[in-house]
Specification:
The protein is 40% helix and 21% strand. A 4-stranded parallel beta sheet has the order 3-2-1-4, with helices on both faces. It has 4 helices and 4 strands, in the order βαβαβαβα. By secondary structure, it is of the alpha/beta class.
Length: 89
């Protein structure tokens, strides 16, 4: 299956490793450009949210796991809710 993980912190990374062991195709998102090389070592595709649309990422997946975390200037509820609403649209 093609599984997309939106937010690849410690939870997303653990799930990516688990599903990768089960031979699924894993794609993840990140907001931190410096994490791309690290993530490329453990998943099939890294989608940088700073330059690419989330819509195109979602369209390519069969399953989406949403595990975003807020940055320093926002709270978890607004970060998660905003992303969940974008996915629902």
């Amino acid at each position: 299956m093609r599984i997309g993980i939106i937010g690849c912190g410690y939870v997303g990374q653990a799930m990516a490793a688990y599903w990768k062991q089960k031979n699924h195709q894993i794609a993840v998102t990140t907001r931190q450009i410096n994490r791309i090389p690290e993530l490329k070592n453990i998943v099939d595709h890294v989608h940088f949210l700073g330059s690419q649309s989330l819509d195109s990422f979602i369209a390519q997946q069969e399953i989406i796991l949403l595990c975003v975390a807020p940055d320093a200037s926002s709270d978890y509820v607004s970060t998660y809710l905003r992303t969940a609403n974008q996915i629902a649209e």
